[in-house]
Write a structure and sequence with these properties.
260 residues; Glutamine Phosphoribosylpyrophosphate, subunit 1, domain 1; binds glycine; 25% strand; alpha+beta
Amino acid sequence: MPGKQLIILAHGGAGSNNAHSDGTDRACKIGLELLQSQTPVLEAACYAVSILENDSRFNAGTGSRKRSDGSVRMDAACMDSGKRFGAVSAIQHIKNPIQVARAVANSEYRVLTGEDAHQYALELSFEKVDMTGLESEAPGTDTVGAVVFNGEYFAAALSTGGTGGSRPGRVGDVPLIGCGLYAGEHGAVCATGHGESITLNLTAYRTYEMLGRGIVPQEALESVLGWFEDSQDIGLLIVSKKGHAGGSNRSMAWSTLTGK
Ligand code: GLY
């Protein structure tokens, strides 16, 4: 979109160290370069999230936390304002789950799960990684994400190693449409934090509805943070035609970058 205002925001998850914003800066830089070379918004958001999945300081990809049985299972999702949505849940041993979610978004399916999602990733030749013995460097952090706007379309992408120590079989907010993320004609939203609370609040979709009512992102952010108790970590990135905002009730590495 030459000449149009481009914007990308990326975060390293609720609870991530603010000092790790060099990682979210890098994700924004790559995402913005992709937007500048006419890459569609969904792909730009997903590639930005892949940068964060490859940074083991964050809880996604190789930084994923372990469940109570010591195993690692990851969730990822993406959505754009052109009505593409795709997600994977409980996938393992794949380096970039967000790229598998992107493939799902471009398929006839919306969510693939577990061993069958892993098999799908192998069929599409996505890079494998052995997560046995993995030690996460991100013990207290949550889902990573990005939102983008290219002046015409919006997209959001999320990836997570889930909640550390959780029971096998648990599903968090990330692969549930409207919970962890939502994108449509009014904007894009991605959430990070306590998955059960994010899901119960239908957080991303209700935030998106505020954008549809003309509420500016900073005001929407402040309102949504108020839905959560102090014990429930929550962070958000929001972009609309009226601006953008990011924040959390915990520390959170996050960045924003604009360009033409
Ligand atoms: N927010 C990620 C999860 O709870 O699984």
